[in-house]
Amino acid sequence: NPPLWGTVKYLSEKIPKDTSSKVRINRDLYSHEKIMETAPTLPDFALSLKPDEYQLPSVDSSWNEENVNGG
């Protein structure tokens, strides 16, 4: 492979450094212990899961007829 120079050399050195830095930062910020430590406590509230009243529509008369086409 030819030697790297210019912009390609700069990027080939910068990208791994930035990536490893971001991985380290994210690992620290989002570690499981840290997430569990900073999780807020939820307020107590009463759940009310009562469905709305609903009445089914009447059945269409075509459902009660035998197969009209004879098929």
TrEMBL record:
Top-rank taxon, per record: Eukaryota
InterPro entries: BROX
Name by which UniProt lists this protein: Uncharacterized protein
Organism the protein comes from: Manihot esculenta
